[in-house]
Amino acid sequence: MRVLARVGVGPLCSAARAVIPCFWRGKYFSSGREPAENQVTPMLRHLVYKIKATGPITVAEYMKEVLTNPAKGYYVYRDMLGEKGDFITSPEISQIFGELLGIWFISEWMATGKNAAFQLVELGPGRGTLSGDILRVFSQLGSVLKNCDISIHLVEVSEKLSEIQALTLTEEKVPLERNPGSPAYMKGVTKSGIPISWYRHLQDVPKGYSFYLAHEFFDVLPVHKFQKTPQGWREVFIDVDPQASDKLRFVLAPCVTPAEVFIQSDETRDHVEVCPEAGVIIQELSQRIALTGGAALIADYGHDGTKTDTFRGFCGHKLHDVLIAPGTADLTADVDFSYLRRMAEGKVASLGPIKQQTFLKNMGIDVRLKVLADKSDEPSRQQLLQGYDMLMNPKKMGERFHFFALLPHQRLHGGSHPMNACQSKPSPSPVAGFGELAWR
Ligand SMILES: C[S@@+](CC[C@H](N)C(=O)[O-])C[C@H]1O[C@@H](n2cnc3c(N)ncnc32)[C@H](O)[C@@H]1O
User: Fold this and answer.
1) pTM of the predicted protein model
2) CA 80, 81, 84, 85 torsion-angle sign
3) pLDDT tens digit string along 111-131?
4) What is the DSSP pairing of strand 232-240 with strand 248-252?
5) Pocket test for ligand 1, best of 78, 220, 317, 356 (most atoms within 8 A of CB)
């Protein structure tokens, strides 16, 4: 991989990454096992009032309120990532993670004919660390990307995190342009001089040849939960506990609810979680990619339509009962990649899900680790090795996290480049990461 060999000379990023032990959210436990303090939070008061006024709410509505309510939502006004927060993510663990993803996008850009311009669109960018590592790769490979007109587009609902992203990514000397009423609510210029904009919804991002990235984004989108009963599927709701008016409890709907249409007719599990919002986003991504080209890379913990109850909470690197002290803990559910694949079907091709360990190995993580470790002092070397172990170890994040890609059909089956005289059909190059690393 020529691109990888060139980025191999790049520096060790000076920003210190979180050191173990931190808790990553892919760790699976069923919800509500850990005891937690029963605190009456402003969010709990809001939910109790709402339920008393209009009746029990779906788990999806509960997740949406708790995580992204514009006034009190967990994601809206806090930095929950890293050692001092509630959980840790791969880009916060090792710079190598983002660098390899940067190479993936360049590799796809090259394989599809080196378009004169592209947008990099990240959904749920956290602290901006991942985009920062990708941008550093773009700068190091400036000679490959020269004359390509790049712009960065971040889809973020959190006011607090968008401020942190701006600090991480933008050039201080160029003032940010703020326009809360406009679809692009903030605009600036990155440290490497690339235009960058923030949006609340994917639909607001301009259409055009784009690479989309979603890392630990789909798992925070609201899920509906269903239980199979002798009477058929019944949706799980959240109600106020009749024994204690400041406590919440799960209840089953007495009859069929509209979200039941999302359950497959041949479903064999006795409990399922469905995320219609993920379906809408995948359909939007698929339409965009089919129309204007590019690709989407989605990385998250999840399953292929096999798991049942995965709804759980995290607070201070510990499991947290999802119904206790809402608004103080993160809520998450494993991503059902089989559902994402179904939502993309017919419009674009999909690859994966494949294990993080396999994807990063195929992308050349061992080579990059060696290059960085060889020129690091002992403490940094140890940190790099610990980070590698966390990302790759099958018992840690290596097998729990998966990569999944959406690509135009012609990318996999040929037809995107002009044919040469001797070929009846151009043969497409393999998609990096989803097959074994090939050295050229
Ligand atoms: C679990 S964090 C992951 C952060 C980052 N991708 C990482 O891996 O470090 C989820 C991110 O998605 C954002 N987010 C949550 N719900 C969102 C929504 N409905 N639309 C846009 N962003 C959302 C959060 O504010 C946060 O930036």
Assistant:
1) 0.92
2) positive
3) 999 999 999 999 999 999 999
4) antiparallel
5) 220
